[in-house]
Specification:
Elements: H1 2-30, E1 36-43, E2 50-54, E3 57-62, E4 73-77, E5 82-84, E6 97-102, E7 108-117, E8 124-128, E9 132-134, E10 138-144, E11 153-158, E12 169-173, E13 176-180, E14 188-196, E15 199-202, E16 207-210, E17 215-219, E18 223-225, E19 229-235, E20 244-249, E21 254-258, E22 260-261, E23 268-271, E24 279-287, E25 292-293, E26 301-304, E27 310-314, E28 326-332, E29 341-348, E30 351-356, E31 358-360, E32 365-369, E33 377-386, E34 393-404
Parallel strand pairs: 3-7, 9-16, 18-26
Antiparallel strand pairs: 1-4, 2-3, 5-6, 6-7, 8-10, 10-13, 11-14, 12-13, 14-15, 14-16, 17-19, 19-23, 20-21, 20-24, 22-23, 24-25, 24-26, 27-28, 28-32, 29-30, 29-33, 31-32, 33-34
């Protein structure tokens, strides 16, 4: 009886095992493995791409320079199939991305997506937007296959004597590049070398670089007598290479004086002729060799008659003047004409203050007392001289600035 039960127990075990295996086999048979329709795969950011399929591995080739860190994929699956992670947002495809497809039956399929750049076509230069450009300005480079990103592009200009460093540029689109020329670049004709990633091309034509437009950086004074020398500091005023003029402009007169370089100084000057027409002028620089002009200096200058009264400096250097103190001016041509009053105007942030001065004909010195109640600050000095008939006056600005402290 016991032996029979053992036999029966053994058959029961085999019967149970068979039932389990049959059940598992039926379950596997009922799971459907979902598939991805590769023909529907695309990136929303791109107009085109190339697709290679190897089983469940997809290799996508995209244009060179495409930003792989942010691409939005789209593809179709069978109805009811769930995609993990879900579609709709952008993904970083700088490394393989895996998508799991889950069928309602429980079947799962994993796809790997690898994205690579297509080999970039060699750039092509078709020409320049202009035959010449002024140093410090930009020009357009026209062509094809310039890529999609500024950092991939390297531009230099060169000739027999000069090779520039990498030039600043801005990629307008894959066919237009704006290139900025340094204002320090020597004049002359240059070829252009363009590199886009590992592809390099040299222009077949050349572009001429012109000397920068001259510029006035500083005028040391605003008031002059005929015969004076006007010193100034200019940019791009190389008198050893080009011929420059300073133009004097007003409503009734236009004159030009030759610019010279001050030895051992980064300054230039013009000599005002003794018969130069008096008046108020705007000034600008003109490069006669390159036919280029500066902008007009914002402040007017004044040219006064060399035989009329004028004041150029203080009789004694006074860097700081106190209220209620006396100030003494050295005069020019004050004794040649008779005047009854010598009015000195002080103009500054505190307002305009007019004081009568005292003229010492023996010392050729004009003295004036600073008002006691004048607000502290810096003041420009101008003068008006009144004739004895009280009807005729003569006025002028000076280059003197008083610091009242």
């Amino acid at each position: 009886m016991l032996h029979f039960q053992r036999k029966l127990g053994g058959h029961s075990i085999f019967l149970l095992l068979g039932t389990v295996l049959a059940s598992l086999s039926c379950k596997e048979a009922s799971e459907i493995l979902p598939t991805l329709d590769a023909s529907t795969f695309y990136f929303k950011e791109l107009a085109e791409s190339q697709l290679e399929i190897k089983g469940h591995d997809l290799l996508i080739k995209v244009p060179s320079g495409t930003n792989l860190h942010s691409l939005t994929p789209s593809f179709s699956v069978e109805e009811g199939v769930k995609v993990v992670p879900s579609l709709g947002g952008d993904f970083d495809f700088s490394n393989p991305v895996f998508f799991t497809l889950i069928h309602p039956s429980g079947g799962k399929t994993v796809y790997s997506i690898v994205v690579e750049w297509l080999d970039a076509p060699a750039p092509l230069i078709l020409g320049f937007g202009a035959d010449e450009v002024t140093a410090g300005e930009s020009f357009s480079l026209l062509g094809e296959h310039f890529g999609l990103h500024n950092p991939d592009i390297h531009v230099v200009l060169f000739n027999h004597d000069v090779l520039t460093g990498a030039l600043d540029h801005n990629l307008v689109d894959s066919q237009t590049l704006e290139v900025t020329v340094p204002d320090t670049l020597q004049t002359g004709e240059y070829s252009l070398s363009l590199s886009v990633r590992d592809n390099q091309v040299v222009s077949s034509s050349k572009i001429r670089i012109r000397y920068p437009h001259p510029a006035i950086d500083k005028l040391f004074f605003e008031n002059y007598l005929q015969g004076d020398t006007l010193f100034f500091k200019g940019n791009f005023v190389n008198t050893s290479l080009f011929h420059f003029y300073m133009e004097f402009l007003n409503a009734v007169n236009k004159s030009a004086l030759s610019v010279q370089h001050a030895n051992e100084k980064e300054e230039q000057f013009v000599v005002i002729p003794k018969d130069f027409k008096t008046g108020q002028y705007q000034v600008a620089l003109f490069n006669a060799s390159e036919k280029t002009r500066s902008g007009v200096w914002p402040e007017s200058i004044r040219i006064y008659d060399r035989e009329r009264p004028f004041v150029k400096e203080l009789a004694k250097v006074q860097h700081v003047v106190k209220p209620n103190a006396w100030v003494h001016f050295s005069t020019i041509n004050f004794i040649e004409e008779e005047y009854r009053f010598y009015q000195v105007s002080l103009k500054g942030a505190g307002g305009v203050f007019v004081q009568n001065g005292i003229f010492n004909s023996e010392e050729k010195k004009l003295s004036v007392k600073i008002p006691e109640d004048i607000p502290l600050g810096d003041y420009a000095v101008s003068m008006e001289l009144v004739k004895t008939d009280l009807e005729h006056t003569y006025s002028f600005e000076t280059n003197i600035r008083l610091s009242i402290r």
